[in-house]
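4.2 Preliminary Data

To establish feasibility before requesting continued support, the project team ran the inverse folding procedure on a target of 333 residues. The structure was first converted into the token representation described in Section 3, and no sequence information of any kind was made available to the design step. The complete token record follows.
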């Protein structure tokens, strides 16, 4: 492949620094994050209440359907979007239905527990590793493949950054929409790298980013029109976005496994496909299973679901080793 212009390294470095700075601001704001201790199925039905959490103390139970919080119906997306985030120690009235009976409960928000703080920090560090290795590998190699690799690594690293709190308003909507677009683009960039990794696939890549673009467009429309949150709309969004993510992760895994099976032992070692496969199986397969189950069975709580994202660390490590190994083989030849 032809070398990319050297100034592209500067562009990557600048974007990487910008992304990491955004993540640092989020880490610094973490002390203000609140914790409620319950999870829903995306349609306001509670599927999990953590032991010792504010939700348990308030009396919330699995199967409760949340009707309103703070006096605002959960279906009223516009009014909900204009509410500032709750403060630690603040209480809100929750109106729920339980077995057809309406109930009012008061939930007092707490600070994030130590476990969640630690997981957030680990997520930030994983994002930094993605970005640093992406920029470094392109700096070392400056090829079309390393450029594709760097784009994927930068965008994927951004996925792990929470970012600071932005008050409700147009700035919040813009930042949320841009952030979601980058996240969706990162999934397409992952598949693009897998398809371009030697031996390059023969598939037409022109429409590869179309699903991500459509999902991003959907989010932009929802973010700025703020339609009423209905069960059918929530289900449509969950299925569509879930299908997009499953498509990209599945395509990436299938593509890599196909290349691995169609190569002999010597070719696998020379191209780094063995290292790529290790990284993909450890880093992608658990997430693919998780997304598939959470998309089609949102009420299912998988054991260890809080920690599944940690497997992503295998991707930057093994993918970088594969690209570096491939470069050494090319130099040796």
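Position-by-position output of the design step:
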């Amino acid at each position: 492949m032809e070398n990319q212009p050297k100034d592209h390294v500067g562009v990557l470095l600048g974007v990487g620094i910008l992304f990491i700075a955004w993540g640092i601001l989020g880490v610094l704001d973490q002390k203000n994050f609140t914790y409620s201790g319950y999870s829903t199925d995306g349609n306001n039905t509670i599927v999990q209440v953590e032991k010792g959490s504010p939700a348990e103390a308030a009396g919330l139970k699995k199967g409760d359907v949340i009707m309103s919080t703070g006096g605002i119906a959960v279906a009223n997306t516009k009014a909900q979007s204009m509410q500032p985030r709750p403060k630690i120690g603040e209480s809100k009235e929750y109106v729920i239905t339980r077995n057809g009976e309406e109930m009012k409960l008061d939930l007092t928000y707490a600070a994030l527990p130590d476990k969640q703080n630690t997981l957030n920090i680990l997520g930030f560090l994983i994002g930094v590793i993605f970005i640093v290795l992406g920029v470094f590998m392109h700096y070392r190699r400056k090829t079309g493949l390393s450029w594709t690799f760097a784009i994927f690594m930068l965008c994927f690293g951004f996925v792990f950054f929470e970012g600071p709190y932005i008050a409700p308003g147009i700035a919040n909507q813009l930042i949320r929409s841009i952030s979601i677009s980058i996240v969706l683009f990162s999934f397409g960039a992952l598949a693009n790298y897998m398809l371009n990794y030697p031996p390059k696939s023969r598939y037409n890549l022109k429409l590869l980013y179309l699903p991500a673009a459509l999902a991003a467009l959907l989010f932009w429309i929802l973010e700025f029109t703020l339609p009423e949150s209905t069960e059918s709309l929530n289900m449509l969004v969950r299925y569509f976005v879930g299908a997009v993510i499953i498509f990209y992760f599945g395509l990436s895994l299938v593509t890599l496994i196909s290349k691995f099976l169609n190569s002999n032992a010597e070719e696998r070692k020379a191209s780094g496909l063995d290292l790529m496969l290790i990284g993909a199986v450890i880093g992608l397969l658990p997430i693919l299973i998780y997304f598939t189950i959470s998309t089609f069975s949102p009420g299912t709580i998988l054991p260890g679901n809080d920690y599944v994202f940690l497997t992503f660390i295998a991707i930057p490590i093994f993918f970088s080793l594969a690209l570096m190994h491939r470069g050494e083989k090319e130099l040796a030849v």
